[in-house]
Design brief:
Blueprint lengths: L6 H10 L4 H17 L4 H10 L3 H9 L7 H12 L2 H7 L1 H4 L4 H10 L2 H12 L6 H27 L11 H13 L3 H20 L6 H29 L1
Helix pairs in contact: 1-10, 2-4, 2-10, 2-11, 3-10, 4-5, 8-10, 9-10, 9-11, 12-13
Length: 240
């Protein structure tokens, strides 16, 4: 199908992102609270969220934050965690390959796990308007920056205990992403199990972060790629 990019697609993507705020907002609150605890000002927290725009790497960076901070170590850790966005961008090639200029670079900048998952689901449902990805990404960015600011202000007013349910938001948010990507047990469960097993194994070996995350992601992606290649080969042989 011919790919298009329209204002209607951008607005549709933004509307599609509204339910995601239920998961993004608590996650952002957590980042804001932790940033305050690490001594970051509200302005510094806002700049970090607006420029980095990646919850997992921001959490890791804050965990490694010292006084004075080891900027190089923090930057490398954040970079390593965000490497996962490279295969996500490649997987969105069904739209990105047809974009140029600000449409392409804007879509890439605002693309995160949530917009990736919903865009893949939109494409599988027959969507051909690449504006959906940009609209969803911009809406997610606005919600993320606002929620981290709210978390910083909340942390200044209320001291939350370390075991507060709010801190489970990060895990819950990433789990919900799997719903939009679900295709069936035979296609998805093996890769997810491999990813989980490798990540847990790396954690049990006390490998430093973000090694368990990366190891699990690479193992799961490799398993899924091999399975998909095998299915395509069987399909081609069957149609020959």
């Amino acid at each position: 199908m011919r790919v298009i990019f329209t204002r209607a697609g951008i607005l549709r993507g933004a509307r599609r992102g509204v339910p995601m705020l239920l998961g993004i907002a608590p996650f952002g609150l957590v980042v804001g609270v932790i940033a305050l605890g690490k001594g970051l000002s509200l302005a510094e927290t806002l700049v970090m969220s607006a420029v980095v725009f990646a919850g997992a790497s921001q959490l890791l960076a804050l965990e490694l934050w010292t006084n004075p901070p080891d900027v190089l170590a923090v930057a490398i850790a954040a970079f390593v965690v965000n490497i996962r966005l490279v295969p996500l961008g490649a997987a969105l090639s069904f739209w990105l390959d047809h974009l140029r200029g600000w449409r392409l670079w804007g879509s890439l900048f605002f693309a995160v796990d949530h917009s990736f998952a919903l865009s893949v689901a939109e494409h599988r449902a027959g969507g051909r308007d690449a504006g959906f990805l940009l609209g969803l990404g911009i809406f997610t960015w606005v919600g993320w920056v606002a929620s981290t600011a709210a978390g910083h202000l909340l942390g200044a007013a209320v001291a939350l205990p370390a075991d507060h349910p709010l801190f489970f938001a990060a895990t819950a948010t990433f789990v919900t992403i799997l719903v939009a990507l679900w295709r069936g047990p035979r296609q998805d469960v093996p890769a997810w199990l491999v990813a989980a097993a490798v990540a847990v194994g790396a954690q049990a070996l006390r490998l430093p972060p973000p090694v368990p995350l990366l190891a699990g992601a690479l193992a799961g992606a490799t398993t899924a790629t091999l399975a998909e290649t095998r299915r395509r080969r069987q399909s081609e042989e069957g149609g020959a």
